[in-house]
Automatic annotation (TrEMBL):
Occurrences of domain Tetrapyrrole methylase (ranges): 327-529
Ranges where the Cobalamin biosynthesis central region domain occurs: 124-201
Keyword match Transmembrane: no
Protein name, UniProt field: Uroporphyrin-III C/tetrapyrrole (Corrin/Porphyrin) methyltransferase
Organism field: Dethiosulfovibrio peptidovorans DSM 11002
Claim: Transferase is one of the keywords in the record: yes
Amino acid sequence: MNIAVFAISARGKSVGKRCAEALNGKLITPRRDELKASLSEIWHRSDAVVMIGSTGVAARVTAPLLRDKEADPAVIVVTEDGELVLPLTGAHLGGGSDLARSLASDLGAHLVSTTSTDRMNVAAPDLLCSRWGWKLEGRKALVQTNGALLDGRKLLFWVDENEETPPFPEGYLPCETPDEADVLVSPRALSLGSHQVQLIPPSLVAGMGCRKGVDRQILKETLLRHLSKQGYSIYSLGEIRTSTVKSREKGLLSLSEELGVPLTKLEDEEIRSIDGNFSASAATAHFDLPGVAEPCAASAGRLIGPRSAERGTTVALGHRPARIEGKLYVVGTGPGDRKYMTFQAKEAIDDSDAVVGYRLYVDQLPEEWLKRKKVERYGMGEEEARVASAMALAKKGFRVSLVSGGDPILFGMAGLARNMAEELPVEVIPGLSAAQLAGASAGAPYSNGLIMLSLSDYLQPWESIERALSGAASTGLTVALYNPVRRDLDVKLEGVKKAYSTRDGQTVWLMRDVGRPGESRKVMDLSELTSSDIDMRTLLLLPGEDTVARKGCLVDTRGYHFERKKRT
């Protein structure tokens, strides 16, 4: 994306620099009296414009340049202190809402949205179009469709038989015929009703050939006529393909740039390898090829009808169903209460179409965060099933949050998700762990270090856990024990006591429901610990050799001068 960041004050320049770095954009710092001219110069070359300052200034300088929601760059305002981010124009079709959300996350700022559907967490058709990189027809009907979503009504969608069903979120229902649909998904040139919008996937590939030196305008006219003849919208074009020799033609290069689609060259051997009953072509005599337009179109998928040949140009169309790339977030939700969840975790959940996870962790999320999202809850022992489901949704194009309590890399879902993901993009969002919060609640017991182990032997053999316990006890550091599962728990606790048998007076701090309502703490001698004292919601803290109890707190000593003096 081409993103321009404007800062006209000394105060705003540092924030502007951060914005440009976060968005991989260009920072522009004109004088105040040069702002309008500088903005006008880059307007049509930009996908988004970020203004550092007030909404008033941004509105005044951009208003004369605004022409079309779909063509204009999105305009985002960031306050000079970097605390607020507001999508001003182009929130949906211009991609401003998603870009502003991403920028707010990078800056640690508050996102201020004034668009009703965004504030209600409703995925409007124009927002989906922007996210998917598609085009939209029937914009006048958006008032009706978006209003229906805001009123809690469902939108009916119909998908062309040759297209794959895109990842519609909650609030959309499939229907059988285009006439009854509110939202139509098709690359074809359709006649829409007053209540209908069309989402146009870029599922067509044009194979094109031409004589040397054919003008861009002639190429464009031939392409448009052929699309019209076959009944397709120009917005359905996602790519132009041609031979290596023709890929150097200025007309084709210029047409590709004008339409905003890539021009892909196919090597001669690749063209010769494509099977098909192609029309006779001059390329056979000149280049020993079965043709250019039709083979190149067929290389993408199903060939749509014969080519058109006129005025020294050839055009053929190939169809490949457009696919939406999904994403899998593995989100650490912290120990429980929402106040311990990171800003990044909330942003990931807000950005997601679906939330999948262990029932307890999903239910701990605020209800309003889950509105209009697909939600899947799983029980204990269904870890692989929940990861597989999250991956299946992401492969269909959904953005999915796989939630994991605490930190997902610590006895959580991150490892399994990475191992199962294959080529699927995965982003791990760290979270505050129960051990961190327990340490803060108990005092400061980890100054020299912390060892964390799980007592669960459902996946790891107990012998391995015993060895780890012995090694941990020998270090003299504080140890946190997770997952005291009920199976053979008395045997496991005896193993813990055995590991600490050489340390007299070893205490254990039982931290239950850390970060949740009803949080409790109990301190006792390790030798007296029984299975009736703990459950799966209990974290066991075993203080290290240099850890002392002082005024109800557990404090580790590092050896600072003050600490040595205190101990003597």
